[in-house]
Q: What sequence folds into this?
């Protein structure tokens, strides 16, 4: 007897003995009366919806929840309901970190249940504990933390129920995957669309066949069987959807233990943006709590498919028999989406990914067996050029990967250079398949190899076998234990016919010089494998294939196993040097406003103000390379580049700023700027703005007050540093027109310091509030503050490290927006387009006073290479009108972001100018409560959608938008569209009932 055949009749519910299980017909008014008559509650009742039960939220007159009234389906016996209540109590006692909707008890400790009459007949009603927070229902995208939490809860429930026994578990439910084949067979007629009906029938048959191989070895136990997004309640204590509550034990039964995980996995698939690979954190989390066996891992995805098929047919049937059930009707579309996603990737692919998620699965990729005869007779493997199309290949330089037919052109160039043939690599990501902008990862990983021939050649059978398929342009031949698939030019006729046996060495096809063909080896039980697959699924697809390189006499290109690169980084690289993202993509290439991962995905870079010209700018690369071939030394030697660069830099600043110091970073620039001011004035106190970051050296860190960079920043300042209020006109103490008060308050602090006998030697501040999210300083702020510090003998130091160099669009320097001229300007980041370069520009009088403190020297600051890099950046900024582009594209982008604010209440403000923008996210536009957690989640989702963006500000609730200045309007639009999608998917915070 197979696992889903009819079982002996049970005294409890048997789905197959009923035509249907419509929910009890109980109105809200009737529910209110039941609560009053049977439980003594004077409450209001609101329907919560259910497929087979009737559920009502009971509330007091003030709106506070009293309980949930659950009226069970008439088909469910008291024994079954008792089992459900006992299981809930057991989990509540064993898992104190979880909230359970247990049955309420009266003053004597008895469960509050009652037998009541309804239009559907006598039923059992009971009062359950109400769990505040709301369920995970709805289309909202589920972040990895939520997915993992759902898997972890399922593991906790499974572990707790493993020893639970009760006669009420002996049930035959339509939701039990053991009976899925019968359920689908009985209800499939309710799916009226022929194509959908065929898809459900086929998927069910395939999943059942896969399960048959392991069904007898799957352990059984008590299972909740409905830990879906509808029945997991989110914690009310935070803004993100993190579940900690469980409701509805109505499907409790005895079945395969692994079903406890399959059910929540399937329920996630209808949420916005969710794909099968997004569910793997739940698998890992479940496995950590309740380890899965190899057989359970094999069964898991077929069970997800069976659950999806059951949902589709059951939903259609329930809608037919329970026509006015809005809950059922609303579920039909999402049930079909669950089915589409569950079957979007072959079960064999997902099974391999699931197995990999549980731990290493032995040797890496499969390799073709050594051929008895070479595939291409007479081709010397030494004359085959291997074409590397990966992100790390030199051939991909200068954006070649974006050119149409780049791979074909590169291969033919190698043939022209004398190669007899060219072959790509199996299992490697081909960057040439990646578009510059994509909201979904492109298919880049090769499941076979492409071969180009430099001269005419014949293809031969590498082993004895049989022709599986033959048609113009395609041939498939068994090549034990695989099938060899050859995709040929469309006009090429294979030599053997379908079904014909072949011997090793038999001719398969003749190809002309210049022909390109594709070779793949697939498992014999696999019908179709795309030539390129998406990286998230590559491990699963590659497990169905083998590297065909040995058929050409080439060594296999199997991946070399090595310790995780991120773990190696953590072991060797000081952890305080953090990285973006918890699970960051490995970036190995950049081009213009794109960064490229090792998996061949191009991301839009919205944060790299280090590379204003764009990544891998050819002029910078060529100029630096040329200078490295000639000379690189320190600036105490005499050479032209340092003179030309410092002259050009000084010419960009107003009088009297005419003298330049060159260093390697912004931190060094600020440190030197402070030292210059103190040395020139003889006054050792410094006034700094709060909520600012200036660097990591002793002096630059001392004046940094960003709480995110140092939570103890204000408490640990040395005595010589004095701070003034952040002049933030959006969320500071003085907002809007009242922001004009900031400057007089700062002036008063400076005056009071002088009156106390400690006049400030310097005032330092970003001239446009970069670290706070691109907030412009109030009009006239710097003029007043600079005047005050100078009145007491001090100097004004402008930190232009983030906002200078044309990024603001309308102004080359931030201080120009304030119509003020500082005494010392510190600049870095943009100066070298990624080459370490910084500068301090001041007057000759201030620079000369440094001599009183000794001499200044920086080994590589102002070196020939650094100077050439700096000169080339200035040339490109001018020649490519990048400051103008910052103004034009920045205005276009800011306008689009402001338009988004009209649709998304999470957007509080759009700050900034040019291409230094800040999108501030708040939970309430009146209180300005920072949306810190939401911002972090948004950044992670944007990465999924192909955009790199990061938070800034003391509350980390501002998206810092500072892309390379070469960004174009199309990329800006891609960013805003992705942002609109992500904000929609993540949705507003739900009400808390």
A:
């Amino acid at each position: 007897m197979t696992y889903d055949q009819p079982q002996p009749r049970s005294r409890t519910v048997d789905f197959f003995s009923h035509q249907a299980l419509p929910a009890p017909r109980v109105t809200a008014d009737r529910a209110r009366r039941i609560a009053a008559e049977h439980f003594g509650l004077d409450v209001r009742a609101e329907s919560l919806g259910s497929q087979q039960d009737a559920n009502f939220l009971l509330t007091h007159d003030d709106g506070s929840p009293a309980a949930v009234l659950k009226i069970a389906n008439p088909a469910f016996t008291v024994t079954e309901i008792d089992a459900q209540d006992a299981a809930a109590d057991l989990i509540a006692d064993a898992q104190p970190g979880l909230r359970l909707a247990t049955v309420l008890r009266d003053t004597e400790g008895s469960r509050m249940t009652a037998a009541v009459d309804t239009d559907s007949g006598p039923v059992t009603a009971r009062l359950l504990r109400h769990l505040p927070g709301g369920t995970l229902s709805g289309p909202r995208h589920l972040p990895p933390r939520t997915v993992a939490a759902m898997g972890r809860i399922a593991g906790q429930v499974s572990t707790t129920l493993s020893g639970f026994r009760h006669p009420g578990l002996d049930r035959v439910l339509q939701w039990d995957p053991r009976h899925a084949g019968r359920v689908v067979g009985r209800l499939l007629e309710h799916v009226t669309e022929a194509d959908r009906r065929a898809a459900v029938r086929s998927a069910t048959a395939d999943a059942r066949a896969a399960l048959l191989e392991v069904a007898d070895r799957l352990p059984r136990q008590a299972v909740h069987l409905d830990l879906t997004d509808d029945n997991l309640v989110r914690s009310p204590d935070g803004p993100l959807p993190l579940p900690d509550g469980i409701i509805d034990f109505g499907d409790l039964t005895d079945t395969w233990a692994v079903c406890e995980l399959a059910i929540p996995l399937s329920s996630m698939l209808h949420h916005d943006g969710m794909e099968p690979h997004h569910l793997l954190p739940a698998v890992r989390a479940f496995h950590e709590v309740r380890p899965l066996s190899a057989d359970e891992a094999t069964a898991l995805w077929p069970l997800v498919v069976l659950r999806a098929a059951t949902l589709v047919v059951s939903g259609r049937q329930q809608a037919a028999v329970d026509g006015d059930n809005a809950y059922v009707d609303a579920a039909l579309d999402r049930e079909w989406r669950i089915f589409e996603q569950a079957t979007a990737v072959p079960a064999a692919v997902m099974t391999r990914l699931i197995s990999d998620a549980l731990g290493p699965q032995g040797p890496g990729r499969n390799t073709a067996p050594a051929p008895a005869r070479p595939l291409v007779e007479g081709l010397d493997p030494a004359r085959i050029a291997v074409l590397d199309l990966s992100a790390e290949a030199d051939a991909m330089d200068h954006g070649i990967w974006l050119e149409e037919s780049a791979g074909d052109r590169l291969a033919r160039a190698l043939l022209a250079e004398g190669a007899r043939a060219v072959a790509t690599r199996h299992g490697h990501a081909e960057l040439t398949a990646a578009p510059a902008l994509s909201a979904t990862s492109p298919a880049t990983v090769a499941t076979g190899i492409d071969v180009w021939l430099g001269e005419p050649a014949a293809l031969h059978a590498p082993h004895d076998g049989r022709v599986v398929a033959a048609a113009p342009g395609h041939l498939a031949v068994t090549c034990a234990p695989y099938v060899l698939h050859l995709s040929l030019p469309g006009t090429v006729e294979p030599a053997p016919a379908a079904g014909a046996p072949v011997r090793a060495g038999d001719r398969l096809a003749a190809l002309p010089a210049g022909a390109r063909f594709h070779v793949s080896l697939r498992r014999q039980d696999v019908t179709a494998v795309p030539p390129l697959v998406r990286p998230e699924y590559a491990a699963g697809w590659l497990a169905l294939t083998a590297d065909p390189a040995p058929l050409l006499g080439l060594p296999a290109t199997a991946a070399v196993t090595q310790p995780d690169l991120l773990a190696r980084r953590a072991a060797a690289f000081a952890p305080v040097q953090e990285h973006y993202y918890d699970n960051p993509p490995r970036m190995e290439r950049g081009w213009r406003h794109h960064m490229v991962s090792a998996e061949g995905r191009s991301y839009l870079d919205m944060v790299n103000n280090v590379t204003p010209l764009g990544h891998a700018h050819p002029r910078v690369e060529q100029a630096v390379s040329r200078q490295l071939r000639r000379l690189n030394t320190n600036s105490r030697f005499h050479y032209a580049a340092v003179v030309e660069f410092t002259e050009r830099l000084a010419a960009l600043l107003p009088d009297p700023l005419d003298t330049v110091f060159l260093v390697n970073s912004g931190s060094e620039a600020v440190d030197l700027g402070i030292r210059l001011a103190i040395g020139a004035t003889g006054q050792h106190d410094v006034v700094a703005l709060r909520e600012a970051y200036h660097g990591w050296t002793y002096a630059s860190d001392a004046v940094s007050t960003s709480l995110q960079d140092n939570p103890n920043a204000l408490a640990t300042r040395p005595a010589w540093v004095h701070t003034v209020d952040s002049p933030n006109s959006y969320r500071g103490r003085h907002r809007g027109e009242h922001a004009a008060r900031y400057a007089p308050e700062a002036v008063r602090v400076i005056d009071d310091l002088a009156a106390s006998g400690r006049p400030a030697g310097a005032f330092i501040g970003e001239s446009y509030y970069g670290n706070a999210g691109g907030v412009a300083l109030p009009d006239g702020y710097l003029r007043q503050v600079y005047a005050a510090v100078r009145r007491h003998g001090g100097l004004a130091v402008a930190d232009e490290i983030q906002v200078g160099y044309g990024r603001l669009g309308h102004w080359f320097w931030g201080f120009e927006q304030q119509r003020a001229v500082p005494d010392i300007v510190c600049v870095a980041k943009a100066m070298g387009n990624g080459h370490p370069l910084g500068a301090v520009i001041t007057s000759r009088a201030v620079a000369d006073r440094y001599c009183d403190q000794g001499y200044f020297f920086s080994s590589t600051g102002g070196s020939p290479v650094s100077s050439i890099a700096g000169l080339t950046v200035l040339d490109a900024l001018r020649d490519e009108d990048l400051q103008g582009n910052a103004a034009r594209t920045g205005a276009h982008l800011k306008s689009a972001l402001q338009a988004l604010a009209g649709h998304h209440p999470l957007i509080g403000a759009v700050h900034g100018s040019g291409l230094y923008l800040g999108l501030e996210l708040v939970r309430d536009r009146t209180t300005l409560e920072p949306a810190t957690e939401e911002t972090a989640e948004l950044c992670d989702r944007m990465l999924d959608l192909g955009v790199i963006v990061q938070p800034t500000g003391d509350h980390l609730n501002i998206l810092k938008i500072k892309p390379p200045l070469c960004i174009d309007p199309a990329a800006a639009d891609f960013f805003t569209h992705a942002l609109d999608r992500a904000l929609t998917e993540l949705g507003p915070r739900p009400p808390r009932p």
Remarks:
- The two ends are 48 Å apart (CA to CA).
- Residues 873 and 879 are 10 Å apart (CA to CA).
- Residues 294-321 form the longest helix (28 residues).
